[in-house]
Design a protein that fits this description.
With 288 residues, the protein is mainly α. The chain is 82% helix and 0% strand. The two termini are 30 Å apart.
């Protein structure tokens, strides 16, 4: 297989070669994404300082502590998704534009700077929102299910009056939380691997429906999850630098190009396999 033939080191070497004369443009494209993220980070900070404290209903000080905690948690669960979806409407098209620019770069296509804004065009903007929504519900829907026992135990510990039952319910709530946290991390990793190719399939085939891109990614990633996971692990040092802030201007283009290049080879490999299977099918029909 092509991806296996090149291996992780080959994919990374090719990424550096693609970026050799394009580092400045890659940093400028990334800068657009960072500016959008900075805007919403500032909004979030202002929200926490000036809006968040006034969203909660007044609860008498003598109210039960667990009831007060539950009311605050429910209010937060309402406010946080609203913020996420508002943010999504601007970040999703920029994110897909950023990935498409890198995919065009590694595919040898023309990769102009304004490609990062291409998903704000009529007809493409809806695809970016569709992608973001499907990704959100496909990933975090499972996470909600994993944490459901924790929430139920917490609610039961508030409702139940028996001290012994309350103690065991609180213990079960704490234990299930840590189990759910581990399970959620595993689920997020696996689903991200399953849907790794989706933005690149959307970029490479504008006529492909978003839902079909998710299904195709699941099919194409069979046998390639470990290769992509090993690429992530090999880039762990760069990812840590990326998390530090300013260095991401230098390492993020490299990381994005590595992922785009690996996606390209996985897609090419699967297309070649499908073409071989199709040719063999025609040969079989001609024989009979």
């Amino acid at each position: 297989m092509v991806f296996s033939m090149y291996g992780t080191s080959g994919i990374k070497h090719q990424a550096r070669r693609f970026l050799k004369n394009n580092w400045g443009k890659a940093m400028a494209v990334l800068g657009v994404s960072l500016v959008v993220a900075l805007i919403f980070t500032t909004i979030a900070q202002l929200y926490l300082l000036f809006v968040y404290p006034y969203l909660y209903p007044e609860i008498p000080s003598e109210s039960n502590y667990n009831i007060r905690t539950l009311v605050l948690a429910i209010t937060a669960l309402i406010a946080m998704p609203v913020y996420y979806f508002v943010r999504m409407f601007l970040e999703a098209p920029v994110h897909l534009g950023l990935l498409e620019w890198h995919y065009a770069l590694v595919s040898g296509d023309r990769a102009p700077f304004n490609l990062v804004f291409s998903y704000f065009q009529r007809g493409r903007y809806g695809r970016s929102i569709n992608y973001a929504l499907q990704r959100f519900f496909r990933i975090y829907g499972w996470v909600v299910l994993v944490f459901a026992p924790t929430v139920l135990c917490a609610i039961a510990s508030i409702v139940v009056e028996d001290a012994e039952a309350k103690f065991f319910l609180e213990l079960a709530s704490d234990l299930s939380f840590w189990l759910a946290a581990g399970g959620a991390i595993a689920i997020i990793i696996m689903i991200n691997l399953r849907y790794f190719l989706v933005p690149y399939l959307i970029a490479g085939n504008p006529a492909l429906p978003v839902t079909a891109a998710f299904r195709t990614s699941v099919r194409y990633m069979k046998g390639f999850k470990w290769q992509v996971a090993s690429l992530w692990l090999s880039l762990l040092g760069c990812i840590i630098l990326q998390a530090l802030g300013l260095p991401q201007l230098f390492v993020s283009p490299y990381i994005n190009t590595c992922f785009a290049n690996s996606a390209r080879w996985i897609i090419i490999t699967n297309i070649e396999k499908e073409q071989i299977a199709l040719n063999q099918g025609w040969e079989w029909q001609e024989r009979f």
